Amino acid sequence: MTVLSQAKLKPGVVTGKDYQTLVQAAKDGEYIIPAVNVVGTNSINAVLEAARKNKSDVIIQLSNGGAEFYAGKGFPDSFQAKVLGAVSAAHHVHLMAQHYGVCVVLHTDHANKKLVPWVEALLEHGEAYYKQHGRPLFTSHMLDLSEEPLAENLSECARVLKRAAKIDVSIEIELGITGGEEDGIGSEDDDLDNPNLYTQPQDVLQAYELLSPLGFFSVAASFGNVHGVYAPGNVKLRPEILKNSQALVESAHKTAHNPLNLVFHGGSGSEQSKIEETLKYGVFKMNIDTDLQFAFAHEIGNFVKENPKAFAYQIDPETHTPYKKLYDPRKWLRKGEEGIIARLDQAFRDLKSAGKSIAQ
Ligand SMILES: [Zn+2]
Prior knowledge:
Helices cover 46% and strands 13% of the residues.
């Protein structure tokens, strides 16, 4: 029988051992913490509000593009924008999260080979922050070297994890390639031995043996998941891949049940029954991006449709009614935030994390 962990944490950004406690609580309690991609204070605040409303802990993450946008599309240097945008967003979350009364994990999303310097620059900022505050700026960073040969993927992850672990930062690695538009995959044969579509359990075992002595890490595994939302019938979800990976590591190293911390990328549009199956196999994090982009845009779109004149005239040309109250950005940006919150209500429910916050 699983003994549910009774651990409680202070609300706010969690890092190091506290992050490990949170991951274990999710695995023991068989729920998944939603990981939401954000691009500005609107999306960050909406995520915090939704987490508080649903009494769920939450993961806030920035892609390199999201971080660049956070710094400003007109920022003069693209690389610097990716770094400083992420740092700026992290400071915002550190300041705000504790007041929302839930635990928040701060994470950065996919970094391929070209973006390893981005992660290293963020670690440099993390090291400076650690000196001052005794904790890092980010809880974890993802390294996605799944396009590289396995040996290179793993040795590079080991190199970065050694540095990250010194300031209590975790890493997420990717084994096998998540399908979808940005990855150019999604129509290959549904073959379990295809290492591009499906993570191979023996690769996961190799990662475990190399990385677990160095620090805390999680694995984004490919089990037929795709980024984005597509018509049904693309690639079949095969959660048994996760089960087999856990079983292989458990038997090879006589570990406790579900030794791996698994991450579900490309969760938008997945069947609920398949999501629930992954809960049993040690998945603690699921990324949600595409569905929230739509939720944000859809609500703003509705508002514009309902009030078309307010977006064409400051004052109505016939009735002379002023439209200031409708075109004020706070009015329609709030509609977008409400769209994010409503979609997250569903995500917290689907992933069974609602009511499970371990903050007190
Ligand atoms: Zn992803």
